[in-house]
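Allow me, if you will, to draw on your knowledge of protein folds for a short while. Thank you for your consideration; the sequence and its tokens are set out here:
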Amino acid sequence: MAHAARGKLVAVIGDEDTCTGFLLGGIGEMNKARKPNFMVVEKDTSVHDIEERFNAFLNRSDIAIILINQNYAELIRHAIDNHSKPIPAILEIPSKDCPYDPNKDSILRRAKGMFSAEDFR
């Protein structure tokens, strides 16, 4: 089957519980280079490694959505803010230890600036 016919993937950058949940949901894939579409962030994972994997996901043509725990998104906020293409979409999600804060979500802040209350009536 052609790769394009299969559709695009969801990538995940998160803690072990987050990644495990999505993997149990069936999102786990390896590309031809044997690179997975997820990254489990451990307590000793460097910010450089998170940013490097994030950028690798941005440059993969088979990924349409990147889910990232918001606490890790905060560590690489500059990289997320610099991403302006619609695909892959970046969605910040809560983790078990850190609840979601909409005020920190750069995509949500950008979207709020595009719409007024009148647009939703």
The chain has six helices and four strands. The first strand starts at residue 9 and ends at 14.
